[in-house]
Amino acid sequence: MEEKQIKASQFEALMDRFGAWIERYLAPPLVKMGNQRHFAAIRAALIRTIPLIIVGSIPLIFTNLPVQSWADVMAPYNEMLNILYTMTMNFMTLYLAVSLGSELARMYEEQDPTIIAIVTVACFIITVAPVDLATGTLSISGFSAKGMFTLFVIAIIVVEFMHFAYKHNVIIRLPKVVPSGIAQSFASLLPMTILLVFFWLLRVVIGFDLNAVLGLIVSPLISVSDTWYAAFICALLLQALWFVGIHGGSFTVWGVMYPFLMANIAENAASVAAGQPMPHIITEPFFYSWTMIGGVGMTLPLLFIWLKSKSAHLREVARLSIMPGVFCVNEPVLFGAPIVLNPLMFIPFIFLTSLLGTMYGYVLTAFGWISPAYIQIPWTTPPLLQPYLSTGGDWRNVIAQAILIVIMGIIWYPFAKLYEKRCLDEEVANTEAE
Amino acid sequence: MDICCYASLRYRTCDFGCVDIVLLAPQVKGQLDDIKKYAAEKGYPGLPFMVIPMREYGLAKADAILQAMLKLLPEADQ
C-alpha cells in the first residue's frame, strides 16, 4: 500500500512538472502572439460577424432538407433562399471589412472607428472588385471568404497609415472650435486620399491583383489547415493551454486557425449550394462536434459521473456545471473541480479526450461515414443537436457523436473515481480535524 | 456595488476612471500586464487589479471573491 502511495505521488509529481513546463515554456509565446494587437483585433472582428454567418447558413438548411418530401415543398423557394445565402455568406468579407476597420481603429485612440471602417471598405472594394464601367457591374467573388486574407493586409495598412499620418501631422487640423465630428472627417481627408489613390494605382492603373497573389500564397496554408495533423496540433495546444488555466481557444481554434476555418466552411457551403461534394473536413463546427463536446476536454460525461459522487465537493461541482456544460461552457468544472493544474487529470484531459475525439471525427469524415459541416452554428449549441444542425440534418453524425460521448465516459471513469477518492479523503480529514 | 463586464480583448474601450478595482477571469490572466500598462498610460497607475482565484471563479463563490477584492482596496474605498 505504501509502495502504491509512493508511486502515485511520484506520478503526480511528474504530471506537476509537465504542467509547470507548459506554463513556463509553451503558454507565454502563444499568449504573447494572441495578445498582439492586430491579431486580437482580427479575432474580435471575426467573432462579431458570426451572427451574420449563422443567419446566412440557415437558407442552406431549407434548400438541402434530408427528407425528400420536405425538399419538394421547399423546391420553388430555393432560388429566393439562395439569394439570402449569397447576400450573407458570399459577402462575408465585405461585412468583415466594416467590423475589422472599426476594431483596428480602437487600437489607436485618435482614430474614429467609423472613418477607418469606411476607408477600409473603400480600399478593399477597389482592390478586389473594381467596377467595370462598360457594363456597370463588379465581381463579387472577392467579397466571399476568398478575399479574407487580402482584407487583413489592406485593413492593417489602412489603420497603420492613418496612425502614421496622425502622429506625423499629415492631416488637416481644423481649429478647436469646430465640432469634433467635422474636425475628424477633415483630419482624415488627406491620409484617406493617399490610401485610396494608392490602392487605385495598384489595382486599376498598374493592374496588380493583390487578391490573386495572396490567394496563391494562402492556398497551401488552407490545404494544410484541412489536414489531420493541423487538427491534432490545434487540439493538443488547446488542451495544453487550458490545462494551465489559459483560454486555449483564443490562440488556437479562434486564433490562428479561425480565418482558415471560416474559409473552409464557406467553401463547403458554396459546394453544397452548387450540388457538389464538400472539399473540407476541418471547420469550426468540426471542433465543436468532435473536440469540445460539453466544452474542452469533453467534460460532460465527467459531470454525469460526479452528479452522484460520494464527495460533497464534486457533487457541488457537477450540480453547478451541468447546465453550462450542456451549452459547452465548462469553466465551472475546469476551475471548480479543478481540472486545471490537477496532475490526476493531466493525462485524460490532454491526451485521451479531445485528441482522441478529434481523430475519431476526422477519420470518420475522411472515410465518408459521416458528413463534414457546412452550416455555421453557435458554439453553444448542445451536443447531439450540434452535429445534426451543422451538417444539414445528417443523423449519422448524431449517432457517431453519441457513441463518442459514451467512449469518453468510459475513459473519464477511472480518473473521475481516482479524484473522487482523493477529494473524499480530504473531506474526511477536514471533518476529523474540526 | 456596480459591476461592469467587458470582454478582455476590448479593454481599450473601458473607462478606467470610473472603477475602483479591475477583476480578471483566470483564463485570461495572460492579458493582465497589457491591461495594467494600458490603465497606467491612461493615468491610473495605482488602480488595483486582481485575477479571480480559480476555484472561487469555478464554483461562483461570490463571498470569497468579494473578501479577496476588499483586501486590495484602500481602506477609504471599502
Could you characterize the architecture of this molecule?
The complex is a heterodimer of chains A (434) and B (78). With 434 residues, chain A is mainly α. Chain A contains 21 helices and no strands. In chain A, helix 6 runs antiparallel to helix 7 (113-128), helix 7 (113-128) packs across helix 8 (148-167) and helix 16 (300-306) crosses helix 21 (395-433). The model of chain A has no long low-confidence stretch (mean pLDDT 89). With 78 residues, chain B is mainly alpha-helical. Chain B has one domain (8-77). Chain B is built from three helices and two strands. Chain B has a two-stranded parallel sheet. The model of chain B has no long low-confidence stretch (mean pLDDT 85). Classes of the chains: A mainly alpha (434), B mainly alpha (78). The A-B interface holds A 27-28, 31, 34-35, 40, 43-44, 106-107, 109, 242, 245-247, 250, 316-317, 320, 331-338, 340-341 and B 7, 9-10, 12-13, 25-31, 34, 54-55, 57-60.
Quick rundown:
By secondary structure, chain A is an all-alpha fold. Chain A has helices at residues 2-35, 37-48, 50-63, 68-74, 78-88, 92-105, 113-128, 148-167, 180-187, 189-205, 210-225, 228-243, 252-256, 258-273, 284-290, 300-306, 312-326, 331-336, 346-366, 385-390, 395-433.
| pLDDT < 50 stretches of chain A | none
Please tally the helical runs of chain B, counting DSSP H or I stretches of 4 or more residues.
3
Mean pLDDT of chain A: 89
Q: Report the uncertain regions of chain B.
A: none
Helix content of chain A: over 70%
Q: Summarize model confidence as the mean pLDDT of chain B.
A: 85
Strand segment count of chain B: 2
The tally of strands of chain A reads 0
Structural class, from helix and strand content of chain B? mainly alpha
Major sheet attributes of chain A? none
Briefly note the structural class of the backbone of chain A.
Answer: mainly alpha
Largest interface: A-B, 29 and 19 residues
The secondary-structure element order of chain A is HHHHHHHHHHHHHHHHHHHHH
Beta-strand percentage of chain B? 5-15%
DSSP helical segment count of chain A: 21
| Shape estimate of chain B | globular
Indicate the proportion of strand residues of chain A. under 5%
